[in-house]
Amino acid sequence: MTMKDFRPRHFNWRVEDDVAVISVSRPERKNPLTFDSYAELRDTFRQLGEAGDIRAVVFGSNQGNFCSGGDVRDIIGPLMERDMKGLLAFTRMTGDLVKAMRACPQPVIAAIDGVCAGAGAMIALACDMRIGTPAARTAFLFTRVGLAGCDMGACAMLPRVIGQGRAAELLFTGRTMSAEEGERWGFFNRLVPAERLEEEAMRLARSIAAGPGFAHMMTKTMLAQEWSMSLEQAIEAEAQAQAICMQTRDFRRAYEAFIAKQAPRFAGD
Q1: pLDDT tens digits, residue range 191-202?
Q2: pTM of the model
Q3: What is the Cα Rg of the chain in Å?
Q4: Which residue among 3, 29, 90, 112 has the highest number of C-beta atoms inside a 10 angstrom radius?
């Protein structure tokens, strides 16, 4: 399946070589999510599992902001009219977006500038790596609107990234985490000037895309699955995963390139 000619209706998408670049639209409102964009993003990340022409993804910002979360007018208002069954259908759909991002085989890099709030913060958290700017402002602000901090997997994922106590503070208070805090706490891999944000994210994405794609998929899979394993289980799972990778053509290419004193050129198979 190819996605280079994919044309989504509810968010921005382009492909440069084998890197897909996504951003939320409507920058005049700091790029909020709607019912339609949630669903289309979920479906897109599911499709990426079959996309042989995409080897890395950058989830970027749009005109100075990443994503302001669910649109108050288009989502919050209509939710007031739903019964419990309808509300659960919505919350499961939002969680399905995170699950699809974690399950897609391509490494996903968030490039975060400005506002990164609510569900936008969860999209950033669901990415495999995060690059930010000094102006990045991240808030898991669910309690600020009368909801629990346990949204879209936040209570499972955020403590693993920044630690239990720091995660608890952000999820109970809904306060904004500054860019400097985020880098110090490990939420951001690094901070770069805004004018270099996309360049740095694309540089990282291209370097990953040039690597052994099947092995990267296995790394991402193990990073997720080993959350619930004992050390003994994890070591055995990694032994099996690595034995599988040793059967790939990329492993042989690396060996042959080493013997020939050349840099390997991986093909992802």
Answers
A1: 999 999 999 999
A2: 0.94
A3: 19
A4: 112
